[in-house]
Design goal:
The protein is α/β, with parallel strands linked by helices and 387 residues long. Helix content is 34%, strand content 18%. The protein has helices at residues 4-10, 71-77, 141-148, 161-169, 184-188, 205-218, 223-229, 237-247, 250-255, 258-261, 269-281, 283-291, 327-336, 360-368, 375-385; strands at residues 29-41, 47-58, 61-67, 83-90, 94-100, 191-194, 200-202, 315-319, 340-342, 351-354, 371-374. The strands form 3 sheets. The chain has a 5-stranded antiparallel β-sheet, with no helix packed on it. Helix 3 packs across helix 4 (161-169), helix 7 crosses helix 8 (237-247) and helix 8 (237-247) packs parallel to helix 13 (327-336). The protein is globular, with a radius of gyration of 26 Å.
Length: 387
């Protein structure tokens, strides 16, 4: 549609204008030779895989690495080391190997042999799912630190991937508790590499002082974020908020057995066992975090009886903006006030906290007859509870 007025009248759907159509060309593909498959270990111990291929131009970009999905896919696809493979860029961005090329393979082509032991620690891998993983706590220190300092955990600005790798390489940090013993002087002298002219790059005094201030500020993060920052396998923000709200202190959480962990919503046998094992392996780290003054209990323990909490037993969805709180902070306060934070409205939802932008969730809550609390009222409830 060429007319501007007609375009305005037609408007747009959620993601696309109604007055236009988009046509995409088929993805460009190319043929290359797979030379190797590199294996790395991620934060949770999962193996990351990428294929090393002979340089090939795909859609204007020279590709030397490409995704190879997971180990069962590699075995089922029939791709071979030193064999010809078809490569394309998924979404014109991510290089992927799709299949063996439809041509005669070289004589020296051979199947790739999947690892049975962790390439970092040598421990036997867990191969019970398509995503192989190492179950040892010592693997992927850089990934563990990066996760811990992220916005939804300790929220420490200034410790990006480059700084984290430099701290680990320098032997200054081997776990998250080590962050709290860092000094500005130590940080300032950490090497970040070299400039194009060959000069050594350091963190420097100004940046180091800012990072130390951020680390110090993180000691007061809510208890649920400290639990999340531990990076225990099978946990995330939601499960850690529920653990913090249920056990209320690190001491009680560490003392919980598998049956007690299973009392928390969303935690079944396998997850409870993983959490129990993870906490046991992190006792030394947790002890050092406590010594560093990090939050080790949920706020307002003086209420004592959970039934006295304002949202006790309620399944609560937060939608739209809440004055003075991010979405994560609002969900943390739901759990802290005795409720269970959920992301979607359903018949089992007890309360919707609705602010500007609540949209379809507010409509669904109205249709289901679910009680709605205005975001301003929720913010005042938080303020009263935080007084």
């Amino acid at each position: 549609v060429d007319s501007i007025r007609a375009r305005d009248d037609l408007g747009a759907a959620a993601r696309t204008p109604r007055w236009a159509a988009a046509y995409k060309y088929p993805a460009d593909t190319a043929t290359s030779v797979l030379r190797d498959i590199e294996v790395t270990v991620g934060r949770t111990g999962r193996l990351g895989l990428r294929g090393v291929i002979d340089p090939v131009n795909v859609a204007g970009t020279v590709i030397t690495y490409a995704t190879v999905h997971n180990i069962p896919w590699i075995e089922d696809s029939g791709i071979l080391i030193n064999g010809y493979v078809t490569v394309y860029r998924a979404g014109d961005v991510i290089p992927r190997i799709t299949a063996p090329a439809a041509m005669k393979q070289p004589k020296d082509a051979h199947p790739w042999v999947a690892p049975t032991h962790c390439p970092q620690c040598g421990y036997e891998l867990d191969t019970t799912s398509a995503l192989y993983r190492c179950v040892t706590a010592e693997c992927s220190t850089v990934g563990t630190i990066q996760y811990a300092v992220s916005r939804d955990c300790l929220d420490i600005e200034g410790i990006g991937l480059e700084v984290t790798e430099a701290l680990v390489d320098a032997g200054l940090v081997s776990d998250i508790a080590d962050l709290y013993s860092l000094t500005a002087a130590q940080l300032a002298d950490v090497r970040l590499g070299e400039t194009p002219s060959g000069k050594i790059r350091l963190v420097g005094g100004t940046v180091a002082a800012k990072i130390v201030a951020e680390i110090d500020k993180s000691r007061a993060q809510p208890f649920s974020r400290i639990v999340t920052a531990l990076g225990i396998r099978t946990t995330g923000r939601t499960i850690c908020r529920r653990l913090a709200a249920h056990f209320r202190s690190m001491e009680a959480l560490q003392a919980a057995n598998i049956e007690q962990l299973m009392e928390v919503e969303g935690i079944a046998t396998e997850k409870a066992e993983a959490i129990h094992h993870g906490l046991a392996g992190l006792r030394g780290v947790i002890s050092r975090l406590a010594e560093a003054g990090v939050t080790m209990q949920e706020a307002h323990l003086e209420l004592g009886n959970e039934a006295e909490l304002p949202l006790s037993g309620l399944k609560v969805v937060v939608s739209g903006s809440v004055p003075g709180l991010t979405r994560t902070e609002a969900q943390e306060w739901v759990e802290r006030l005795g409720g269970t934070a959920s992301s979607s409205v359903s018949a089992s939802t007890d309360l919707l906290v609705a602010g500007p932008g609540a949209g379809s969730k507010a409509d669904k809550a109205a249709a289901l007859g679910i009680r709605v609390m205005e975001a301003e009222d929720f913010a005042r409830l938080v303020q009263r509870s935080n007084a």
